[in-house]
Write a structure and sequence with these properties.
This protein has 55 residues and is mostly helical. It has one helix spanning 6-30.
């Protein structure tokens, strides 16, 4: 049985991993956070704490 040359198969493997990583990189970079974190408003009046009915 003849021996296959590994060079083109290695290139195909390397190229497929490169394409896969590029696709994931573009998807990660284009996805923006949906909600930006906000600091709580310290000047607003807070609601009164809720009391348990059995206390």
């Amino acid at each position: 049985m003849p021996q296959l040359n590994p060079s083109p198969w290695f290139f195909i493997l390397l190229l497929s991993w490169t394409v896969l990583l590029l696709v994931f990189k573009t998807k990660i970079l284009t996805s923006a956070p949906h909600n930006n974190p906000m600091l709580p408003d310290l000047t607003a009046s807070h609601t009164t704490p809720w009391n348990w009915p059995w206390t």
